[in-house]
Amino acid sequence: MSQVKSVLIAGAGIAGPALAFWLGKLGLNATIVERAPALRTGGYAVDFRGTAIDVLNRMGLLEQVRACDTHMGDMIYVDRNDRQMAVLPAAAMSGEIEIIRGDLVGILHDATKAGTEYIFGDAIAFIENKPDGVEVIFESGIKRHFDLVVGADGLRSSLRRMAFGPEAAQVQDLGLYASIFSVPNTLGLDYSGRLFSAPGSLAGVYSARQNREARTMFFFNSPEPLGNLRDVAAQKGAIRHRYQGQGWHVPQLLKHMDNAADFYFDSVSLVSLPKWSKGRIGLLGDAACCASPLSGMGTGLAVVGAYILAHELAACGSDFVSAFANYQARMQPFATASQKLAMSARGGFVPNSSFGIAVRNLMLKVLPLMPGNVIMKPVQDAAETVTLSPDGWAEAA
């Protein structure tokens, strides 16, 4: 097999540019194709814990990320009259460092744009594994040849569907839907957030970017599966229907939905595949092993996975098959632990009954009286599943 020199990455979010960063350090040519016409600069807050912070430090980006830290405090569970019912500690939601997704995307783009070819407003339309490389046809009609292709295009990865088969066999829904978008900070939140629970749903709002902005989030179940709602109008209609008649600040938050430039909606889902690669095509981040927002590990899986994949490619030289296999072997325990966190968090984050809400609130009230950190220990253990030795190798902890 010939030496790997060129890599096409689908997706200019977090995982893709993180991989391009390390490929550039290794002297490989990275190209990133992104369907959006420009960087997505808005979005929700994402956080870093454990090994992911070590990777940021090795990238030389840790201080830049810290400078954009949200400094988010505790999240307060309230009733419909805005009375405090329980407190969710900051560490449970915000990790060791929290940053608005768009700010992180900008930092990664700035760190890679000089040595990476970015193609915006285009996407992969056809892909074919060949003995000497991968033939790619873009939606624009341009044909290119690459040594490897990596899908870092998220939960609904188009590349994964093309190369690995139908989505239904790979995506496991957790019975929830999520929507997140920007709103004005009309509640005057000061580095804090408020969460309102009703049976089977949660509405929340938290401050962002030094309290100049805020983000609202809706997590809810549905009596009937909503299917793959790709039409934004249908998504917004489903949210309005589900939250109809709810009190607190829900009506006001819904009014901001139509004008939100960064509206996000999807199912809360996991991605499970027996293999994260097929020939010269591999997967990274949510496309390979999405652990859903409930785990709090998506950003960590992206940046740690990018680091390990790049170093395995360097270590294995022309043997990309072994590089992909070693990368998955090192990352699989992290992915599995993260997905278990998501499964266990689902019921407590969005209880299905008033009794469940009361139990959740009671548990949070007695938490400070319990020995040890029963909430954060499994989270921290998952975040440190992969350890990095001084010479750059990753080993299972």
From TrEMBL:
InterPro entries (UniProt xref): FAD-bd, FAD/NAD-bd_sf, FAD_aromatic-hydroxylase
Start and end residues of each FAD-binding domain: 6-335
Q: Which GO terms describe its molecular function?
A: monooxygenase activity
Q: Does the keyword Ribosomal protein apply?
A: no
Cite the entry's keywords alphabetically: Monooxygenase, Oxidoreductase
Which SUPFAM superfamilies is this protein grouped with?
Answer: FAD/NAD(P)-binding domain (SSF51905)
| Identification of the protein by name | FAD-dependent monooxygenase
